[in-house]
Design brief:
Elements lengths: L19 H28 L1 H9 L1 H5 L5 E3 L5 H17 L1 H12 L5 H4 L2 H33 L8 E3 H18 L2 H10 L5 H6 L1 H15 L5 H34 L1
Parallel strand pairs: 1-2
Length: about 260
């Protein structure tokens, strides 16, 4: 055929710009490629699901002192849990691909010099997210579970619904991964001129209050220790974001003068 039936994703017109329909086509392909990555990641998690359940997700409950007693209240409860773990695990495994597809979608709006850094951007974005999940799993979650296991009177036995336990773990890990993206979000907004170091310094006290509110929402229950454990790295990330904003602003100003 002299011409393809349709343009492939990412192809641009003769003027080097993409039309609105081409943007939609590009967006559709990025979603498809992201979904394929999630499916592949889910298949991998499905193969190792027993190891994931026993050694990653149920281990914190067994190692808590006293151990948490998990019960299933629905006939299909474990089936739903397994499917939930497989899908969420697939998303986490495909995070690098998801970030890559996102940055490739916005690549036409970047400068040529910025496009060459796409792999570094994907690497640091993934690193921040996974760093947050690891921090939540190894630091926050054991502390929170220990608090829940020892809080209250001995007259009440803590038999915890397994779906509530998994919801707590998954929400805590994923939310922590998202909030650890603060440095990358700051860099991106600073390059666009939306955020400046002066702005972040001016509203530092307000940011501290917001961080405490966010950590209070993320860490369920009256567990002050877990809230502090999550707040401290977020304070450090905010200060790091100010420095990152300075770097991004200098690059933006240099770009204007060139």
């Amino acid at each position: 055929m002299s011409e393809d039936f349709e343009k492939t994703a990412g192809e641009q017109n003769d003027e080097g710009k993409m039309s609105f329909l081409e943007h939609l086509e590009e967006f559709r392909w990025r979603i498809i490629k992201s979904a394929i990555g999630v499916v592949i990641g889910s298949i991998i998690c499905g193969i190792f699901i027993e190891w994931i359940m026993d050694n990653l997700l149920l281990a914190p409950a067994r190692h808590t002192v006293p151990p948490l007693v998990l019960i299933n209240l629905k006939p299909y409860g474990q089936l739903v849990l397994y499917m939930q773990v497989i899908i969420v695990g697939g998303i986490i495994l495909s995070i690098p691909n998801i970030f890559y597809q996102f940055w490739k979608f916005i690549q036409p709006g970047l400068y040529d010099s910025e496009r060459s850094y796409i792999w570094w951007i994907v690497f640091f974005t993934t690193f921040c997210f996974l760093g947050g999940t690891v921090f939540a799993y190894f630091i926050i979650m054991p502390t929170a579970l220990k608090f829940f296991a020892t809080f209250g009177t001995q007259a009440i036995t803590n038999n915890i619904a397994v779906n509530e336990y998994f919801s707590f773990i998954i929400s805590l890990v994923l939310t922590s991964g998202v909030v650890f993206e603060l440095p990358m979000v700051t860099y991106f907004l600073s390059r666009l001129g939306i955020v400046t170091p002066k702005f972040m310094k001016k509203y530092r006290r307000h940011a501290i209050v917001v961080i405490l509110i966010i950590t209070g929402i993320i860490t369920p229950g009256p567990d002050i220790t877990s809230q502090i454990l999550l707040s401290l790295p977020l304070f450090l990330l905010y200060e790091l974001s100010i420095f990152i904003s300075k770097v991004a602003q200098k690059k933006r100003e240099k770009r204007k003068t060139d």
